[in-house]
């Protein structure tokens, strides 16, 4: 791993020791201050920035101010490692801090400092729930210091988004942020733009966003008008093709490859010269028709219901109404089944996370696991990974992997281990790689008569997750979780009393005031005393009529607001909920700390891995759930030679070894030799995925340059109040291009033209710019190239002025609106068509690439050509439309 300081955490500490000490000293002096003095710090800092002070110079004082505010508002003393992490973030790096080290609070330090400039700070989280949680939780510190917090949620309308993006610090998920960016760049009115320019961004769980999610780009799509007959023709054609002669099937990759003979057959059938041509290509349709025919079976992969093709989920066997296979496959199946073919979606805008986050002036991130991926961060994002030592030494014991021959024996062994842990009383977290496997284990545990909680990464379950994770550290608790589940919430030994108290209060208010009008507490909380507290709370709330006339949503946000960590009572009705919280909390805290003692005595949280994941990073993430803040804990991975990783990447060697040693199926091996092979296998998979991401990045980079150019031009137009100049520029460029073309072309291909060059120029110009036909061709004959151009410019301006006068007299101001509208509309349409061409190009390049050429270079060259064509096309059509708008159209409709 590379970073600025080598990778010795102590060295990093030493380098920053002085700075950290200084911050601590300043903040300890601030303890004497009264609240108002602390709060006016923000104004003082802002003033100094206005007077030209650099924010780096303000760092020590600003960090000290946050530290002190945090102490006053949340009653938490920031650890040294958190201050250190904050500095590292401010410097635009990734800080690797283990789970439970308090990254959320760490990020407030650089967020506050960078917010002082007023240019905005974005804090990016993996889901809506965490964005909301962190905004409310950290918002208390910011608001104490007079800094405004914004929050973006999925269902928010544009007006509210804009308000929230204008706040000093905005919490938002990666996908909302990306989609807002794309939507902003499709706005027709500049008032519809919700985001400001990008300044500083802190990505939480940065590896999940920049690595795991970087394989699929963000796409905004809309219905397209592709004619259905291409699907039908391809379906007919597919029935004529012969397997292994015209095409080959790759079952494993669910893929079809056309043979050379097949390609020729198709081209003859369709009477076209190339099925991969960039304008209206056929290959995709044909391949989809073949896939539909060969690989997708009715009543297994899909069913027909109400004349619709409905997907059947591979793992669960459940039908998935409304979901559609992408890239035209669904339509191909519809054609095969002769049901109505539904419209395909067309990409209107797209960007990869890689390129999106590079738009920030300064980018930083934090996660528990980044060092294994540091070369990728370094190469693609130009960002260093710095490991921060833990606050307390981690004493977790990572036990060696156990490898079984058969998968069956592995799962039995896992269930046995769960049983043992349950008997001892240790809480256990079992990580699985997918939903199917977590359900398999759940079934096994049921057979053993063991209670368990099942967590999976489905978005609708994230809030439930908080509840399950809150209790995952209690004794005798078995928690099964898939990959992504529970990120962002940490497991506290003995249970999370805070979280539990909040959840139970929220739940009882939901039950009573929103759903059933009755307390359901018995279902999940038997404690009599707590029940009494909750009952009292409900009757008090009812008596004081606090929720009368509130919508359900208001009831919830009111409750959540009152459950925040602040001790100060800011609102007068607050005490009912707050008091109940304090009562419930102190009781839970008592019960839980007893349990905590027990759990610690028997060894803390035990983590079981059921398979090596596709990268070591994800394994480490799972392991990292145990041993937080110096707690005891352990982890162990159970593997089998039938696991995907071992099967695909070099399990043979190990199998041979096991055969030679004549090892029983039930007996695992635990050996160092194996670990090496395993690590190697995993590294192979890691680099495989890295290559995919790198390739996506390199190809998107080409598109990205074009996207930036188009977006910049669009922005220029959108913000301009006088686009006439822009239009004239487009017209003049068009004239240049036409004149240049004929001057060059004409000499070479004289024979082809039986009219004069000037006539050609005139004809073309006449069509595009709608110039009066009185321009005498003979006039052009007597001029040189440059004169021809200036003459046409002049004619164009005169015609344009006339047109403008005409429109102006119809409705003052209209012409400016029309100009803008035409410009934006043409740019957008052309760009969307361009995106499709680029996608086709990408595909056809992949197909062509077994020649000598480097496909990427080839792609770049052709992409450039396509881009130039698009620009010319935009200029020409804009000029064409604006010069011809006859205004028979209702002007209201235009805007
Ligand atoms: P991470 O994201 O690093 O896994 P969180 O930010 O979710 O961790 O914090 C985990 C818990 O630690 C939270 O409950 C938080 O209140 C607590 N915490 C963070 N910093 C401190 C601190 N300096 N002292 C005490 N508790 C802290
Ligand atoms: Mg976190």
TrEMBL record:
<dbReference type="Pfam" id="PF07517">
    <property type="entry name" value="SecA_DEAD"/>
</dbReference>
<dbReference type="InterPro" id="IPR044722">
    <property type="entry name" value="SecA_SF2_C"/>
</dbReference>
<dbReference type="GO" id="GO:0006605">
    <property type="term" value="P:protein targeting"/>
</dbReference>
<dbReference type="GO" id="GO:0005524">
    <property type="term" value="F:ATP binding"/>
</dbReference>
<feature type="domain" description="Helicase ATP-binding">
    <location>
        <begin position="84"/>
        <end position="242"/>
    </location>
</feature>
<feature type="binding site">
    <location>
        <begin position="100"/>
        <end position="104"/>
    </location>
    <ligand>
        <name>ATP</name>
    </ligand>
</feature>
<dbReference type="Pfam" id="PF21090">
    <property type="entry name" value="P-loop_SecA"/>
</dbReference>
<feature type="domain" description="SecA family profile">
    <location>
        <begin position="1"/>
        <end position="670"/>
    </location>
</feature>
<keyword id="KW-0472">Membrane</keyword>
<dbReference type="InterPro" id="IPR014001">
    <property type="entry name" value="Helicase_ATP-bd"/>
</dbReference>
<keyword id="KW-0653">Protein transport</keyword>
<dbReference type="GO" id="GO:0008564">
    <property type="term" value="F:protein-exporting ATPase activity"/>
</dbReference>
<dbReference type="InterPro" id="IPR000185">
    <property type="entry name" value="SecA"/>
</dbReference>
<keyword id="KW-1278">Translocase</keyword>
<dbReference type="GO" id="GO:0017038">
    <property type="term" value="P:protein import"/>
</dbReference>
<comment type="similarity">
    <text>Belongs to the SecA family.</text>
</comment>
<comment type="function">
    <text>Has a central role in coupling the hydrolysis of ATP to the transfer of proteins across the thylakoid membrane.</text>
</comment>
<keyword id="KW-0067">ATP-binding</keyword>
<keyword id="KW-0793">Thylakoid</keyword>
<feature type="binding site">
    <location>
        <position position="82"/>
    </location>
    <ligand>
        <name>ATP</name>
    </ligand>
</feature>
<dbReference type="InterPro" id="IPR011115">
    <property type="entry name" value="SecA_DEAD"/>
</dbReference>
<dbReference type="InterPro" id="IPR011130">
    <property type="entry name" value="SecA_preprotein_X-link_dom"/>
</dbReference>
<keyword id="KW-0934">Plastid</keyword>
<dbReference type="Pfam" id="PF07516">
    <property type="entry name" value="SecA_SW"/>
</dbReference>
<dbReference type="GO" id="GO:0009570">
    <property type="term" value="C:chloroplast stroma"/>
</dbReference>
<feature type="binding site">
    <location>
        <position position="490"/>
    </location>
    <ligand>
        <name>ATP</name>
    </ligand>
</feature>
<keyword id="KW-0150">Chloroplast</keyword>
<keyword id="KW-0811">Translocation</keyword>
<keyword id="KW-0813">Transport</keyword>
<dbReference type="InterPro" id="IPR014018">
    <property type="entry name" value="SecA_motor_DEAD"/>
</dbReference>
<dbReference type="Pfam" id="PF01043">
    <property type="entry name" value="SecA_PP_bind"/>
</dbReference>
<dbReference type="InterPro" id="IPR027417">
    <property type="entry name" value="P-loop_NTPase"/>
</dbReference>
<dbReference type="InterPro" id="IPR011116">
    <property type="entry name" value="SecA_Wing/Scaffold"/>
</dbReference>
<dbReference type="GO" id="GO:0065002">
    <property type="term" value="P:intracellular protein transmembrane transport"/>
</dbReference>
<dbReference type="InterPro" id="IPR036266">
    <property type="entry name" value="SecA_Wing/Scaffold_sf"/>
</dbReference>
<dbReference type="GO" id="GO:0009535">
    <property type="term" value="C:chloroplast thylakoid membrane"/>
</dbReference>
<dbReference type="InterPro" id="IPR036670">
    <property type="entry name" value="SecA_X-link_sf"/>
</dbReference>
<protein>
    <recommendedName>
        <fullName>Protein translocase subunit SecA</fullName>
        <ecNumber>7.4.2.8</ecNumber>
    </recommendedName>
</protein>
<keyword id="KW-0547">Nucleotide-binding</keyword>
């Amino acid at each position: 791993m590379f970073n600025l300081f080598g990778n010795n955490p102590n060295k990093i500490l030493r380098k920053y020791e002085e700075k950290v000490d200084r911050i601590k000293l300043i903040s300890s002096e601030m303890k004497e201050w009264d609240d108002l003095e602390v709060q006016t710090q923000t104004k003082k800092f802002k003033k100094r920035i206005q007077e030209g002070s650099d924010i780096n110079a303000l760092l020590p004082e600003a960090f000290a101010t946050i530290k002190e505010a945090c102490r006053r508002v949340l009653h938490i003393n920031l650890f040294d490692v958190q201050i250190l992490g904050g500095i590292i973030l401010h410097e635009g790096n990734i800080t690797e801090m283990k789970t439970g080290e308090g990254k959320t609070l760490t990020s407030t330090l650089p967020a506050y400092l960078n917010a002082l400039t007023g240019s905005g700070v974005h804090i990016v989280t993996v889901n809506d729930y965490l964005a909301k949680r962190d905004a409310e939780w950290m918002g208390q510190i910011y608001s104490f210091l007079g800094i405004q917090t914004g929050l973006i949620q999925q269902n928010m309308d544009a007006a509210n988004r804009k308000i929230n993006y204008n706040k000093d610090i905005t919490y938002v998920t990666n996908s909302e942020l990306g989609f807002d960016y794309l939507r902003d760049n499709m706005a027709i009115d500049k008032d519809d733009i919700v985001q400001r320019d990008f300044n500083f961004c802190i990505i939480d769980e940065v590896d999940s966003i920049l690595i795991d999610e970087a394989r699929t780009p963000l796409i905004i799509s809309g219905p397209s008008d592709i004619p259905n007959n291409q699907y039908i023709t391809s379906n007919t054609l597919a029935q004529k093709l012969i397997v292994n002669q015209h095409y080959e099937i790759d079952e494993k990759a669910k893929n079809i490859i056309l043979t050379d003979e097949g390609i020729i057959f198709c081209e003859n059938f369709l009477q076209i010269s190339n099925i991969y041509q960039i304008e209206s290509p056929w290959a995709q349709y044909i391949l989809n028709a073949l896939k539909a025919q060969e690989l997708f079976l009715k009543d297994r992969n899909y069913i027909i219901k109400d004349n619709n093709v409905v997907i059947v989920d591979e793992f669960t066997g459940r039908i998935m109404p409304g979901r559609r296979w992408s890239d035209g496959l669904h339509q191909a199946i519809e054609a095969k089944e002769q049901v109505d073919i539904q419209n395909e979606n067309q990409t209107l805008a797209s960007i990869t996370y890689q390129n999106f986050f590079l738009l920030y002036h300064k980018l930083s991130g934090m996660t528990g696991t980044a060092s294994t991926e540091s070369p990728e961060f370094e190469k693609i994002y130009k960002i260093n990974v710095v490991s921060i030592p833990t606050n307390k030494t981690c004493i977790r014991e990572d036990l060696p992997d156990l490898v079984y021959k058969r998968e069956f024996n592995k799962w039995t062994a896992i269930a046995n281990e769960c049983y043992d842990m349950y008997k001892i009383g240790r809480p256990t977290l079992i990580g699985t790689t997918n939903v199917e496997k977590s359900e398999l284990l759940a079934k096994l545990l049921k057979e053993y008569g063991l209670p368990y909680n099942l967590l999976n990464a489905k978005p609708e379950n994230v809030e439930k997750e908080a509840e399950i994770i809150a209790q995952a550290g209690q004794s005798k608790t078995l928690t099964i979780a898939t990959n992504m589940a529970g990120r962002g919430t940490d497991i506290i030994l003995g249970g999370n009393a805070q979280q539990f108290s909040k959840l139970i209060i929220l739940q009882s208010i939901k039950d009573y005031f929103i759903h059933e009008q009755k307390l359901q507490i018995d279902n999940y909380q038997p404690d009599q005393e707590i029940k009494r507290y909750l009952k009292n709370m409900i009757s008090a709330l009812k008596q004081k009529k606090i929720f009368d006339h509130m919508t359900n949503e208001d009831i919830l946000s009111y409750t959540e607001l009152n459950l925040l960590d602040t001790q100060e009572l800011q609102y007068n009705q607050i005490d009912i909920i707050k008091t109940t919280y304090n009562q419930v909390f102190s009781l839970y805290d008592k019960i839980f700390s007893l349990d905590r003692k027990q759990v610690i005595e028997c060894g803390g949280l035990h983590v079981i891995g059921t398979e090596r994941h596709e990268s070591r990073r994800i394994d480490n993430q799972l392991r990292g759930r145990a041993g937080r803040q110096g707690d005891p804990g352990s982890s162990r991975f159970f593997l089998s030679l039938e696991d995907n990783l071992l099967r695909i990447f070099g399990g043979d060697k190990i199998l041979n070894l096991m055969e030679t040693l004549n090892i029983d199926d039930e007996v695992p091996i635990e050996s160092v030799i194996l670990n090496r092979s395993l690590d190697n296998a995993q590294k192979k998979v890691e680099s495989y995925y890295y290559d995919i991401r790198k390739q996506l990045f390199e190809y998107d980079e080409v598109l990205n340059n074009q996207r930036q150019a188009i977006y910049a031009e669009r922005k220029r137009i959108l913000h301009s109040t006088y686009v006439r100049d822009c239009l004239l520029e487009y017209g003049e460029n068009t004239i240049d291009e036409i004149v240049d073309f004929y001057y060059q072309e004409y000499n070479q291909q004289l024979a082809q033209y039986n009219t004069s060059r000037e006539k050609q120029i005139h004809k073309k110009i006449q069509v595009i710019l709608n110039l009066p036909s009185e321009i005498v061709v003979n006039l052009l004959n007597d001029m040189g190239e440059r004169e021809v151009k200036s003459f046409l410019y002049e004619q164009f301006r005169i015609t344009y002025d006339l047109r403008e006068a005409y429109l102006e007299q119809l409705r003052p101001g209209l012409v400016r609106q029309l100009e803008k509208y035409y410009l934006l509309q043409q740019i957008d349409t052309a760009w969307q068509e361009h995106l499709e061409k680029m996608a086709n190009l990408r595909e056809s390049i992949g197909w062509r690439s077994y020649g000598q050429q480097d496909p990427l270079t080839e792609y770049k060259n052709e992409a450039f050509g396509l881009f130039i064509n698009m620009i010319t096309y935009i200029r020409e059509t804009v000029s064409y439309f604006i010069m011809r708008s006859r205004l028979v159209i209702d002007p209201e409709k235009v805007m």
